[in-house]
Fold this protein.
Amino acid sequence: MTQAKPKGFYFEAPSPLVPGVTVITIVRFAGGNTKTGRLLDTWHFVKGVSFHKARHNGAHDEAICGVCPYRPKDGEKQGGCYVTGLALLGMQKSFDAGNYPHWTTFGDDLPTVLAMAGQGRNVRLGQYGDPVVMGHDNVAALISFAKSFNGYTHQWKDDQFNWAQGFMMASADTPDEMIEADAAGWRCFTPHSPDMETPEALAKVRSAGLKALKCPTESTKCNVCPVKCNGTSSKVKHHVLIKSHGAPNVLQQYRKTAANAAWLA
């Protein structure tokens, strides 16, 4: 019987967010969706805990999601996270089936294996989990020969992750946070209230002196987007706004947040 071709590989590293916790990073060769287009992407999980149950009640996901305000809270399984439990369960089953072998299957030097994996590809850092958990060297290796890359982090207020400014967008959730992140040297990717239109949100941000534009994904896919959500590496220096989107339950959760209230104030 012919063994199935690997769908990617995984490596382990200590979480920089919670001491004593090990993070499993899966590099998936053929990822993406209808909005992003085909991408190589990374998924981050807590070792020793079921992928799809780790975030229930916000019990274990701090080690991979940090201060993300959309993490589930007490009594919640998904919270405001756009990644569904079904997607996480699917990754768990695929991982358990051996579809993502250890990185040593492909070589004996992790940076080289990462660089080869990303070569010529469009890379999404952090399809689930915050990509800063990979660390600077692993991120730099993965995108070193990539065709394009994008990523987003909620850890931008923590100075230890300033290295990510050239790789990722700051996930700033309010106009005030955008001003703060901009002053700290970040480009921002910011969802605004689903109860307002993007031109109104842009006007609010521009009135504060920030350069911002509407995310082009209504007319193009991430893997061919000219704006490039790759932090300060992009030739486009504007911040990016997008109307909050997702499943009805995700939008319902978003409408309860302080971020939504801040946009509508």
Remarks:
- The mean pLDDT is 94.
